[in-house]
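Structure in, sequence out. Go:
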């Protein structure tokens, strides 16, 4: 395992790029960081992140716990490796540079699906901008959709950070709800009934208006609504930069 000593970067960065290199060369048999991380992801998908430990991963692989530390230095490093491997490969967006809006929409939906498959990822704190190979590939994919938009490099990066933030925030809010033993429709209906009980028109007139309108009985696709508004804003920026009427 190489070291990032003096660089200020976590050791997991070196591990991830080395894993990527080995994957391209072909994996070798025996205990490896890749096998450890894969087993940890499978465990977290089944039981959640809270009960994950190096000992449980070792048991899953039928190895002694201490043998794992020759490949992964700590539980925190394991979490970082798990998150990046769980991202997998981004979608193939053929022709998306000619249809940036359609490309970004497909990118966002594929990105959301990652969190739906691995909801435990949302429990791992974001430590900074992406430098890991898996996350970098998703950034590269998104940036390519903006290739012919006329946006500056800084604007392209800002757009992608906005997209990442929107998808992650939506997943952060919706995942705990949809993971319970109720449908989204049932959850919203129960929420509306609770609101109706406690919210009065004098103190919360704007909220009360929503209740009276039956808003919490509806099941609109909030992700799509928000995504379209984000893309609308990006389109205004692109039109402005290319000299078009941003409101046309």
């Amino acid at each position: 395992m190489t070291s990032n000593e003096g660089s200020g970067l976590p050791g997991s960065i070196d591990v991830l790029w080395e894993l990527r290199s080995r994957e391209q060369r072909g994996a070798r048999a025996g205990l490896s960081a890749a096998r450890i991380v894969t087993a940890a992801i499978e465990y977290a998908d089944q039981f959640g992140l809270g009960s994950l430990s190096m000992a449980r991963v070792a048991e899953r692989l039928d190895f002694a716990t201490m043998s794992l530390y020759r490949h992964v230095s700590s539980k925190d490093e394991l979490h970082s490796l798990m998150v990046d491997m769980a991202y997998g490969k981004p979608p193939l967006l053929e022709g998306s540079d000619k249809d940036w809006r359609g490309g970004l929409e497909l990118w966002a939906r594929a990105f959301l699906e990652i969190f739906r498959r691995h909801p435990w990822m949302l429990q791992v704190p974001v430590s900074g901008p992406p430098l890991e190979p898996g996350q970098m590939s998703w950034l590269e994919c998104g940036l390519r959709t903006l290739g012919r938009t006329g946006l500056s490099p800084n604007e392209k990066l800002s757009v992608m950070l906005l997209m990442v933030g929107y998808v992650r925030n939506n997943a952060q809010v919706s995942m705990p709800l949809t993971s319970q033993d109720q449908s989204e429709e049932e959850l919203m209906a129960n929420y509306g009934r609770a609101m109706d009980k406690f919210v009065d028109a004098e103190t919360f007139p704007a909220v009360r208006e929503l209740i009276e309108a039956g808003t919490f009985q509806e099941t609109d696709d909030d992700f799509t609504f928000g995504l379209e508004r984000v893309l609308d804003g990006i389109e205004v920026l692109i039109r402005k930069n290319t000299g078009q009427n941003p409101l046309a």
